[in-house]
Amino acid sequence: MSATHICPNCQSDLTYENEGLMACSQCFHEWDPAAEAATSDAPGLKVVDSNGNELLNGDSVIVIKDLPVKGMPRPVKAGTKVKNIRLTDGDHNIDCKIEGFGAMGLKSEFVRKA
């Protein structure tokens, strides 16, 4: 089985290969993973964690402090491991899925590389 690809449309990890393209079983979006790799490794995008280690797409990180989540009764606890992150531009430069919370954006200053 190949590496897990995240759907760029709905952020689902339930994807599969279909005639050279990747397809999402949740929203039925199809895309070319080679084109995704070329755009996701943008040369100008460098994200570092709280310790100064460079983060890459697909890395795992650990949350270093309790983070309150708007609309949720409990925070994301320190020590929570987040797998298969995606790097983005902007204030919240990590897109991820956290079990029990769903898809969300994190700031790299509140995580460390696992």
Structural description of this entry:
With 114 residues, the chain is mainly β. It has one helix at residues 33-40, and strands spanning 15-18, 21-24, 30-31, 47-48, 54-55, 61-63, 81-82, 86-87, 94-98, 102-106, 111-113. It contains one helix and eleven strands. Strands 1-2-3 form a three-stranded antiparallel sheet. The chain starts with 14 loop residues before the first strand and ends with a strand.
Largest sheet: 3 strands, antiparallel
Q: Label the structural class.
A: mainly beta
Classify the helix fraction into a percent range.
under 10%
Give the number of DSSP strands: 11
Distance between the termini: 23 Å
Helix-strand sequence: EEEHEEEEEEEE
Average pLDDT, rounded to a whole number, is: 85
Shape: globular
Strand content of the residues, in percent? 25-35%
The number of helices is 1
Q: Any idea what the radius of gyration is? A: 15 Å
Uncertain stretches of 5 or more adjacent residues: none
The order of strands across the largest sheet is 1-2-3
Fold topology:
Blueprint: E1 15-18, E2 21-24, E3 30-31, H1 33-40, E4 47-48, E5 54-55, E6 61-63, E7 81-82, E8 86-87, E9 94-98, E10 102-106, E11 111-113
Antiparallel strand pairs: 1-2, 2-3, 4-5, 6-7, 6-11, 8-9, 9-10
Keywords, separated by commas or semicolons:
114 residues, mainly beta, 3-stranded antiparallel sheet, 30% strand
